[in-house]
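STRUCTURE:
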């Protein structure tokens, strides 16, 4: 799996959200690197702390997006929140097993996160971006 290279076509046109998506990608690429570099003696610690960082950042980002949806009375806010929750449930369950040492953080988990988030940005967040544009936000 390659690093994610941000495609400007994924911008939704809102500065706050686009900046957060870019930052998410940057943390993800760092996590990806940590998983690949098996020469690191502290590999487990680095992976776990970076995984925690990306999960915390994902939550922070979801909250920002949801706040903006509330503030702008986005009609599809409810189904969008549900999708965020689904992602969290899926990843937190996996993260718990990482913390318990049951699984090694691997490319499969990273691919899952990457595919879900990028698709979500390109389809669902994009819809929200279009709505924001009608409000000039
Ligand atoms: Fe988003
Ligand atoms: Fe979203």
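SEQUENCE:
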């Amino acid at each position: 799996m390659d690093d994610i290279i941000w495609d400007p076509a994924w911008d939704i046109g809102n500065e706050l959200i686009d900046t957060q998506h870019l930052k998410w990608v940057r943390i993800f690429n760092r996590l990806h690197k940590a998983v690949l570099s098996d020469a690191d003696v502290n590999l487990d610690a680095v992976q776990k702390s970076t995984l925690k960082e990306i999960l915390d950042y994902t939550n922070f980002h979801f909250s920002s997006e949801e706040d903006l949806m509330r503030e702008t009375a986005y009609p599809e806010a409810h189904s969008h929140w549900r999708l965020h929750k689904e992602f969290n449930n899926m990843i937190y369950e996996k993260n718990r097993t990482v913390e318990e040492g049951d699984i090694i953080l691997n490319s499969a988990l990273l691919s899952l996160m990457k595919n879900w988030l990028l698709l979500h940005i390109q389809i669902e967040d994009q819809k929200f971006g279009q709505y924001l544009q009608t409000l000039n936000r």
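REMARK: The pocket of fe (ii) ion (ligand 2) is lined by residues 65, 80, 84, 120, 124-125 (CB under 6 Å).
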